[in-house]
Specification:
The chain has 117 residues and is mostly helical. The chain folds into 2 domains: 74 residues, no CATH class; 31 residues, no CATH class. Helices cover 50% and strands 0% of the residues. The chain is elongated. The mean pLDDT is 90.
Length: 117
């Protein structure tokens, strides 16, 4: 079964529309397509001027065909919100409770303190 057929078979649910509007829609945006256009435009904006339109189309196509960017990207890309678009951070934790392990990797409490800074 093609993705288009799967998407067409899924009816919109009120809860998904509410979440979309509350968390991701900005300004006059009312649909997932509106949000995808904003995000695609923002992502394509770093490409050379002559290639931005092409990449905007590629990004919209990807999102219309099942790719879902991270929540921070959907929320902030293409807006004046001053936030990171990174959705996840990885903190190495060594084999130590306090201080650092023999390789210099912070133990659990040192890593927690570093993450809080």
């Amino acid at each position: 079964m093609k993705i288009e057929d799967l998407l067409a078979a899924l009816p919109e649910q009120e809860v998904t529309i509410d979440v979309l509007r509350e968390k991701y829609a900005k300004g006059d945006e009312a649909t997932a397509h509106d949000i995808r256009l904003r995000v695609a435009r923002a992502l394509a904006s770093v490409e050379p001027a002559g290639r931005q339109e092409h990449w905007q189309g590629e990004f919209v196509w990807a999102m219309e065909n099942g790719f879902v960017p991270a929540g921070r990207i959907n929320s902030a890309a293409g807006t004046d919100i001053r936030a990171t678009l990174i959705n996840c951070f990885v903190q190495p934790i060594g084999d130590a409770v306090w201080g650092h392990d023999e390789h210099g990797t912070p133990g659990i409490y040192a890593a927690l303190q570093e993450a809080a800074e």
